[in-house]
Amino acid sequence: MKFFNREREINEILSILEREPNLIYFIYGSINSGKTALIKQIIENKLNDEYKVFYINFRTYLISEKREFIEAIFTTKKDDFFEKIIDKSEVLNLITKGAKILTGIPIPEVEFDKLFEEKINDAFQYLNSLLLEVKKSGKQPILIFDELQMIRDVVLNGQKYLLKELFQFLVSLTKEQHLCHVFCLSSDSLFIEYVYNAGELEDRADYILVDDFDKETALKFMDFLAEEILGKKLSDEDKEIIYSYVGGKPILIINVMGKLKHKNLKEILDLMLKEEVS
Predict the structure, then answer these.
(1) Where do runs of H (alpha helix) occur along the chain?
(2) Which SUPFAM superfamilies has this protein been placed in (predicted)?
(3) Is 118 a residue whose pLDDT tops 70?
(4) Which of 198, 253, 264 is nearest to 226 (CA)?
(5) What is the rounded distance in angstroms from the CA atom of residue 163 to the CA atom of residue 96?
(6) Contact (Cβ atoms closer than 8 angstroms) between residue 258 and residue 275
C-alpha cells in the first residue's frame, strides 16, 4: 500500500537529516496517529546508503530496571530473531557494510555481558565509539527510540538517573559532537514533558507533531483506500459513518477498509463499538 498524505512531516524530517545534527527531536501525537509508519516510510524509502539507522522499539520489551533498559538498547534482531554477535569485526562489518537499518545496537556477546557489571555511562561510551566508527566510514548515523513512554517504569522504580544520563548522552551526540541525529517517538505528551524537564533539554530539543487526519483528509484517505483495497468507491454516507466512529486515526480507517472486503460496514462498526465498551 502506498503511503498517504504526510508530505509536510516527511519534508520536515528530511530537511533535518540534511543538516548537521544539533537537536534531539520528539515526534509526538495521539495513539495510532501514524508516527511509527511515518518514520519507517522515511528510513526505508527516502534515505540513501549514506545513512546508517539504529532503530530501537521499546514496545517489544518490559522495561522497569537498568538491566532491561540496557537489553532493549543493545539487543539486535534480524527478521524478528535475536542475533548473537561473536566479535568486534562482525560489529564493524554490520555498521559499515551491512544493512542500512539495524534493529538495536550491535555488540559482541562477551562485551554485552560486561555491560551489566559496569556503570551506565560505560554502555553509552561504547555506543559513542560505535557511532564514531559509522561516521568515519562515511555514513551519517541516525538513532531512533520508538515508544519512548515504555521506559517510564524505570523512573517509577527509583532509577530516574538512567533517564537523565540517557538524555544528557543524547545531548552530547547532537548539540555537542554533532555526531548523530536522534529521534524519540511517543504518544505520551506528559512523559515527553517530564523527560524534557528531567533531562534538562531546554534549547537542546524540538518537537514534530504527527496528528490524526482532519476530516477532509480522512475522507480523502478513505477514497484512496477504497480504490487500493476494494477496487471501488464508497458512498459519501458510508464515509461519514466511518468518520463518526473512528475519526481521523489512519490505522483504524485502514482496519475498517480491510474488513470491508469480507464484511458489511454495520457489522464492522458494531463490533468495534462493542470492543471499545467492553
Answers:
(1) 7-18, 35-45, 66-74, 88-96, 109-115, 120-136, 152-156, 160-171, 189-198, 215-225, 236-246, 250-259, 265-277
(2) P-loop containing nucleoside triphosphate hydrolases
(3) no
(4) 253
(5) 29
(6) no
Measured between alpha carbons, how far is 196 from 190 in angstroms, rounded to an integer?
A: 10
Which grid cell is 187? 504518544
In the block, residue with C-alpha cell 511515518: 38
pLDDT single digits (tens) 22-38? 999 999 998 888 899 99
**What's at 100, amino acid-wise?**
K
End-to-end Cα spacing for the chain: 32
Task: Yes or no: say if 123 and 70 are a contact pair by the CB < 8 Å rule.
Answer: yes
pLDDT of residue 93: 85
Per the DSSP assignment, residues forming a β-bridge with 24 are 182, 205
> pLDDT by residue (tens digit) across 51-80?
999 999 998 888 888 888 888 888 776 555
C-alpha cell at 222: 478513505
- Grid coordinates representing 9? 512531516
Neighbours of 214 (CB within 10 A): 11
Count other C-beta atoms under 10 Å from residue 275's C-beta.
Answer: 8
Q: Is 176 helix (H, G, I), strand (E, B) or coil?
A: helix
- All three cell numbers of 185, joined, read 517517538
Phi, psi (5° rounding) for residue 269? -70, -35
Give the global pTM.
0.86
Distance CA(219)–CA(248), nearest Å, equals: 9
Residue linked to cell 520508538: 146
Where residue 29 falls (left for φ over 0; alpha for ψ -120 to 50; beta otherwise) is: left
Dist CA 239 CA 86 (whole Å):
54
